[in-house]
Amino acid sequence: MNKDEQLAASLKKDLEIDTGSSTDPHELEKILAARINTLIDGGFERLVQILYRIDVDEKKVKKILQDNPGEDAGSLIASLIIQRQREKIRTQSLFNQGEKHNSDEERW
User: Which of 6, 35, 40, 37 is nearest to 23 (CA)?
Assistant: First the structure.
């Protein structure tokens, strides 16, 4: 599975968002931004829970919103979520590589 497919899968799993069959990062960001805007308008508590669960830094959210007044909040927050999901994917990949390397050493 390539990194874009991993990103789409993590958004589906962690955020319970239907991304269809798209793995294009720009399309995923648009889908996510629309969902976030819906939550801002009618489910803000749920949005806060999601951001907390996936470990998006609250300070980063506040800063990006303050630094970009008039910009679409959903798009700004979506970019932070995607950035965080990519960090998780990168960390998992490094961890899995380390496990593979360690298991290879244990055979000897």
Answer: 6
Burial class (CB in 10 A: 0-12, 13-18, 19+), 94: exposed
Q: Provide the 3-class DSSP secondary structure of residue 60.
A: helix
CA distance 23 to 9: 9
Q: pLDDT of the chain along its 108 residues, tens only?
A: 788 888 888 888 877 777 777 778 888 899 999 999 999 999 899 999 999 999 999 999 999 999 999 999 999 999 999 999 999 888 888 877 766 656 555 554
pTM for the model stands at 0.81
Q: How far is CA 61 from CA 2, 4, 32, 70, 96, in A?
A: 28, 23, 15, 15, 30
First-to-last C-alpha distance (Å) of the chain: 30
Residue given tokens 């589906």 in the structure block:
12
Which helix (H) or strand (E) covers residue 96, if one does?
helix 73-106
